[in-house]
DNA sequence: GCGTTCCTGACAGCAAACTGAAAAAGACAC
DNA sequence: GTGTCTTTTTCAGTTTGCTGTCAGGAACGC
């Protein structure tokens, strides 16, 4: 299994790498977001191990960027504080699991195994929605009446958010956050446009408008 | 729910307070860090709404101080658009969530609900009413015989008030205040109309008329 | 019966949401 | 680099449906 470790604390990074190498995994290491981006461009990794507290800032943005570009590479985030907000932001940004430092190396192995099993594993969990639409969140694929529908990365980013919270109405602002960098506010009706496109591709029934509030997908 | 709002822009502060008061929350307001510290000493708040750009300096220090003293009071920080670093610092300092100004008041409510739910541990406080109607006050959703019913924002504003005070008869005047800004007199039968609309959506039994007094919902 | 209070269908005005199209920005091959 | 194709964003015209108002009628208390 090919693993990319993004971590700037050298002691920790070395310990993790030794442990994983000993377990027969292929580990590349980068100490910054910039390096990581370069390495990700060159190689297809099976798992991404991502520290959120990097010197050059936004580990989360790296993850968000990846997801926006359509990558489904499993990602486990490493966070220094036992901070619920970090964890939730991370999971929202597209992380699959998280570990709070300091962590046990055996637990890391266990999580890695779990995550990769979830992905390589046979039964991808399909979520069924109204209108004959099925969604494979892990595999980033959508079927309409059994036929595969291709979504662009933005379309997916938006739809993904909604499918992950079925029954809950999400405001346009919340949905914008799935589309753009933190705080990069946009002053047009982009969300409306993407909802419109998704409806054309998936049928009218899937996404419901709650006027004055936002949009909702039912499970 | 008892909320402390720390915000120096009076217009914003008033808007937030009105909105939350209308939603039945108890809101205290302070315009500076010093005041906030005093108020925090005197009262146990359920949520802290903290602007990071205060005149007397660092709202962040207030938060760090709280956390250092072992307080786990949930905190939502309010930041301007361009202060991404603030936001990250805030989350690191122990904030649970953030809102970018200008924000939608309904979204504020949603975040508040989410944060407090996260802490109280009850994910879905459903209230059951007569006529097979269930209400999720935090999630702003209503089920009738297990089927989701969509309410418009005005309909919800009114119904929310009644469900929060089950068994208590509310006058039309009281209910009007849930619908409009404080003091905005309205000289028509709007409340009656909305009660009628709610009954059509939820069934006749849910809202009872107390002639000459007002309306009541039973738990 | 009477007067009062409440209910509800209808409707116009308006803001929110939808959508087609075109411009702008990226992606990719060459 | 250039050209071509796809995706993203913006804009404007149209549609939708929420809202407040009213009027006629029903229900209630007397």
Widest sheet, order of strands of chain A: 2-1-3-6-7
CATH topology of the largest domain in chain A, which one?
Rossmann fold
Structural class of chain A: alpha/beta
The CATH architecture term of the largest domain in chain A is 3-Layer(aba) Sandwich
Number of strands of chain A: 13
Q: If you had to describe this structure to a student in words, what would you say it looks like?
A:
- The structure is a homodimer of 219-residue chains.
- The first copy, chain A, is of the alpha/beta class.
- Chain A has two domains: 2-120, Rossmann fold (3-Layer(aba) Sandwich); 126-217, Winged helix-like DNA-binding domain superfamily/Winged helix DNA-binding domain (Arc Repressor Mutant, subunit A), CATH 1.10.10.
- Chain A has helices at residues 10-22, 33-42, 59-68, 84-93, 105-120, 153-164, 172-179, 190-202; strands at 2-6, 26-30, 47-51, 53-54, 57-58, 75-79, 97-100, 126-129, 133-136, 141-144, 147-149, 207-210, 214-217.
- The first copy, chain A, has a five-stranded parallel β-sheet, with helices on both faces.
- In chain A, β4 and β5 form a beta hairpin.
- In chain A, α6 crosses α7 (172-179) and α6 crosses α8.
- Chain A starts with a strand and ends with a strand.
- The model of chain A has no long low-confidence stretch (mean pLDDT 77).
- At the A-B interface, β5 and α4 of A face α4 and α5 of B.
- Chain A binds a DNA duplex (30 and 30 nucleotides) through α6 and α8.
């Amino acid at each position: 299994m090919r693993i990319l470790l993004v971590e700037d604390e050298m002691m920790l990074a070395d310990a993790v790498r030794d442990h994983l190498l000993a377990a027969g995994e292929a580990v590349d290491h980068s100490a910054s977001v910039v390096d990581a981006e370069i390495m990700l461009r060159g190689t297809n990794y099976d798992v991404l191990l991502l520290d959120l507290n990097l010197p050059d800032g936004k580990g989360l943005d790296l993850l968000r960027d990846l997801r926006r570009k359509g990558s489904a590479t499993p990602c486990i985030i490493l966070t220094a504080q036992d901070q619920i907000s970090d964890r939730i932001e991370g999971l929202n940004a597209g992380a699959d699991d998280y570990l709070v430092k300091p962590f046990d190396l055996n637990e890391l192995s266990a999580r890695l195994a779990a995550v990769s099993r979830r992905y390589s594993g046979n039964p991808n969990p399909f979520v069924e929605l109204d209108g004959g639409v099925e969604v494979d969140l892990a595999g980033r694929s959508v079927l309409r009446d059994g036929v595969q529908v291709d979504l662009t990365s933005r379309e997916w980013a938006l739809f993904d958010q909604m499918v992950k919270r079925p029954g809950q109405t999400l405001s346009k602002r919340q949905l914008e956050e799935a589309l753009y960098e933190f705080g990069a506010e946009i002053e047009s009706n982009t969300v409306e446009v993407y909802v419109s496109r998704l409806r054309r591709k998936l049928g009218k029934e899937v996404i419901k408008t709650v006027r004055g509030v936002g949009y909702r997908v039912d499970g």
